[in-house]
Amino acid sequence: MQAHDDYGHEGLPHHLPMREAGGGRPRPAPQPEEQASPEPEPPPGPEAGPLVRPYVIAQGRDHADTVKLDMISVVIAAKRAEVDEMELEPEQLRILELCRRPQSVAEVSAHLDIPVAVVKVLLSDLLNRGLALARAPYTAKSPVSRDVLQAVLDGIQRL
Amino acid sequence: MASRDSDTQAPVPSALKILVAGGFGAGKTTLVGSVSEIAPLSTEEVMTEASYGVDDLSGVEAKSTTTVALDFGRITISESLVLYLFGTPGQERFWFMWEELSEGALGAIVLADTRRLETCFASVDFFERRGVPFVVAVNCFEGAHLYQPDEVREALSLDPTIPVVLTDARTRESSKEVLLTLVNRVAEQMAA
């Protein structure tokens, strides 16, 4: 770490490259949806369904019966559910084991080394069977309240 | 969303996310790791760039798939709230990934590396256009010339209200300050 007393320098021989305000120069991307051409390609949102061919472990289910899950939807195994192990994939049993404590879809993917899209399919099956519960994250449609922001500030302070 | 009434069932927490963007090597994962309660995890998404959701064998040759690694960390705020920090791939060609990631994000930290400042331009452009609240954190690398925040602000043509802070992404205290600056910025914008 360079000492901070180097800080009050002057007579700059160093020049930082300049960004044009508003990202003026033309770029192929990123393009916000609102500014897209009249008939835009469908954006790759969560509703686009699995972007990889569902694995055999997902039993060929497609997104038709997939509960909408986000990367940070938090999942927890249902406490009093009776699990019929024969009806589930081994990966689903591992998910239930892992989700005794709340885990996000991203965490499940990382811990079990299963791609996010496949985790979503396996999880939505568990949700449909009532073996797991999920909560959608805060979104633009359900923005955070002041209280939540304060809780976040307090939580970061405590680190 | 599935839910069942049960007296014994623990409530499922809600999650929030903050994005950490910046060029390759700007220190995104370092920053995430310095404040995360878990060692940063990595999840890989295989994305089809050319055509989404098309499951047709014809034209397979035309598609290109990209594996995008996302590093993320976790801060448990309370029993009912978890905060995730996602390091987002900095390259412009991953913009489709940013779309999904920025959806519902509380805000973003743009990590600037003054040795290669242009590597954060795309991130600044993106958050500016999408109206995602963000702060710029200048990661101070050893041996690199140290710029003042105002010099970086000027080079990035930033709105004067956008905070620019110097940081050492390796230290928790420094990264905490960046996070607090961002959340305060979000609070200000909410009040405005």
Concise summary:
Chain A is mainly alpha-helical. Chain A is 26% helix and 6% strand. The longest helix of chain A is centred in the C-terminal third of the chain and has 13 residues, at 116-128.
Would you mind describing this structure in some detail?
Chain A: Residues 1-57 are annotated as: Disordered. Chain A: InterPro entries: DUF742. Chain A: Pfam families: DUF742. The complex is a heterodimer of chains A (159) and B (192). With 159 residues, chain A is mostly helical. Chain A has a domain at 49-135: Orthogonal Bundle (Arc Repressor Mutant, subunit A). Chain A is 26% helix and 6% strand. Chain A contains four helices and three strands; from the N terminus they run E-H-E-H-H-E-H. Chain A has helices spanning 90-98, 105-112, 116-128, 146-157; strands spanning 74-77, 103-104, 132-135. Chain A has a three-stranded antiparallel β-sheet. The model of chain A is unreliable at 1-12, 30-37 and 45-57 (pLDDT under 50). By secondary structure, chain B is of the alpha/beta class. Chain B has a single domain, classed as 3-Layer(aba) Sandwich (Rossmann fold), CATH 3.40.50. Chain B has five helices and seven strands; from the N terminus they run βαβββαβαβαβα. Chain B has helices at 28-35, 95-102, 121-130, 149-155, 172-191, and strands at residues 14-22, 41-48, 65-78, 81-87, 107-112, 134-139, 164-167. The model of chain B is unreliable at 1-6 and 50-61 (pLDDT under 50).
Secondary structure elements and their pairing?
The complex is a heterodimer of chains A (159) and B (192).
Chain A lengths: L73 E4 L12 H9 L4 E2 H8 L3 H13 L3 E4 L10 H12 L2
Antiparallel strand pairs in A: 1-2, 1-3
Helix pairs in contact in A: 2-3
Chain B lengths: L13 E9 L5 H8 L5 E8 L16 E14 L2 E7 L7 H8 L4 E6 L8 H10 L3 E6 L9 H7 L8 E4 L4 H20 L1
Parallel strand pairs in B: 1-4, 1-5, 5-6, 6-7
Antiparallel strand pairs in B: 2-3, 3-4
Helix pairs in contact in B: 1-5
